């Protein structure tokens, strides 16, 4: 059983992340041209100061433990945004605020990441980060507990062979966003992508009730990926348990051997500190998805292009 203390902490983060809903936030949303290059004005000719005042100098974030929030707070400091602060909430609250602002064509700045369904639903852009605070593209990696290869070789091999794209993940995310229960969305994807699933299970044998315990953080992408691989494991005969936790508790669960693994490690930036703290107690199986990204995100109609544009005159 999972340690009750950290499990209790983990359950407190029931987002939508909101890696909840769905949609594909692939590299489509990560780049875009828009707005003036000097960022001196907002939509309608507003000054940079007016944007700050209208937003009460607030960047809308997600849960306080998230790497994108920590990095956003660092960006506020590095760029000298003295009046600005990152307001933490949840993935669901963030996307609701984003949707409301876009409906009224109002300014908003949110902590963002891809893959995420919001880039498929809305016309968004990342603010340029000339100081490189948010780093470049990231990988989503698979981590397993030490000794899993010897203990459960078939589980180890499937997790090691699990790799897919932002577009593939996005179909599951979008189905959930549109109201399909995640378990059903995962089953549908697995059924419709038998060739891909065969790549993951190649060289393995079906088992009879071997337990597979996976943990994940409640982000839309990780809900999608964990449920898909969980469905594949069920079809291979595993007794699967998926447990939602907060970031630190997720890493701790794998490092302490309470969980067999996770497919939700964002590196090198988002979970970098947690990786450094736990890397000697787990095994890194490499990337299951390439091209992930984090940063500050705004609607394209906002006439700013860089984090530096948020600095007061």
UniProtKB/TrEMBL annotation:
It is found in: Cell membrane. The lineage of its organism: Bacteria, Bacillati, Bacillota, Bacilli, Bacillales. Residues 27-41 have a biased composition (Low complexity). Keywords: Cell membrane, Membrane, Signal, Transport. It comes from the Bacteria. It comes from Pontibacillus yanchengensis. This is Glycine/betaine ABC transporter. GO terms for molecular function: amine transmembrane transporter activity; carnitine transmembrane transporter activity. InterPro entries: ABC_Gly_betaine_transp_sub-bd. Residues 27-47 are annotated as: Disordered. Pfam families: OpuAC (PF04069). GO terms for biological process: choline transport; glycine betaine transport. The keyword Signal applies. GO terms for cellular component: ATP-binding cassette (ABC) transporter complex. Residues 53-192, 214-311 form the ABC-type glycine betaine transport system substrate-binding domain. Residues 1-21 form the signal peptide. The keyword Cell membrane applies.
